[in-house]
Specification:
About 45% of the residues lie in helices and about 10% in strands. The chain has about 230 residues and is α/β, with parallel strands linked by helices. The chain has a 5-stranded parallel sheet with strand order 5-4-1-6-7, with helices on both faces. The chain has a two-stranded antiparallel sheet with strand order 2-3. α9 links the parallel β4 and β5. About 35% of the residues are buried.
Length: about 230
């Protein structure tokens, strides 16, 4: 019985949030929104230190908390629903009042920072002739952070769920992205952080690498280059 090696990787699909970018420091995000709202002092002075710490910890895991409000991920299909889910999620935290919710939402993407190993990984893949795409479940336009971070210029395609009417783990969004890259499932790698969403690629025969969310500047994307035979 002969054993055939897997096809060489010709394309890589990357999740965006918590894979190529970190959402940033929640305390700094809260302080930015606080200033934007023209509230006096600091969050600790206005809310009390314990309450400010509690709200900061809640914001650090805001999208995990949103699954309670939106278990079917409806926010990933429509910008209006994305905002509704945001408001409902923040309302579950006693210190997240509506006015502050507005300013937190308005400054959210400003906090997102690419990992230190994001661009080196994308550039190495491009130099090797491996095509890449950002494949994100998201209900808002990521263009500002894609452009500011330099990620858009380093990939061949960007697919956002709300723009195509399909979201991971649905097979349609994976197939759509494969078509954009001109790649097959067998020669493609999916890289993400969610076993619920990104692992849906495996059902189509796409090799899948899950890197759980990290809080440091380096996310471990060198593993992608190893799998692509570029290490």
């Amino acid at each position: 019985m002969s054993i055939h090696p897997p096809a060489p990787i010709a394309a890589v699909l990357f999740d965006f949030h918590a894979t190529l970018v970190d959402q940033g420091d929640a305390g700094r995000w809260l302080a930015t929104a606080w200033r934007r709202s023209d509230r006096p002092g600091t969050p600790a002075e206005g809310l009390g230190a314990a309450a400010a710490d509690e709200l900061t910890a809640y914001l650090h895991h805001i999208w995990e908390h949103s699954r309670v409000v939106d278990p079917d991920n409806r926010r990933d299909y429509d910008p209006g629903m994305h905002r509704q889910v945001w408001d409902a999620t923040l309302a579950r935290q006693p210190h997240g009042d509506p006015g502050l919710a507005d300013d937190l939402y308005a400054t959210m993407l400003d906090q997102w920072q690419r990992y230190d190993d994001t661009l080196p990984t994308l550039h190495a893949l491009r130099a090797a002739g491996i095509r890449t795409a950002v494949l994100s479940n998201v209900g808002i336009d990521l263009s500002p952070v894609l452009d500011q971070s330099g990620i858009r210029a380093a990939v061949d395609a960007v697919v956002m769920s709300y723009q195509v009417g399909s979201a991971k783990p649905e097979p349609e969004i994976f197939r759509h992205t494969l078509e954009l890259l001109g790649s097959t499932a067998e020669e493609t790698l999916m890289v993400g952080d969610s076993w619920r969403d990104d692992a849906g690629a495996a059902a189509l025969g796409i090799r899948t690498l899950l890197l759980p969310r990290t809080d440091g500047p380096v996310h471990g994307l060198s593993l992608v280059l190893r799998l692509a035979g570029l290490a």
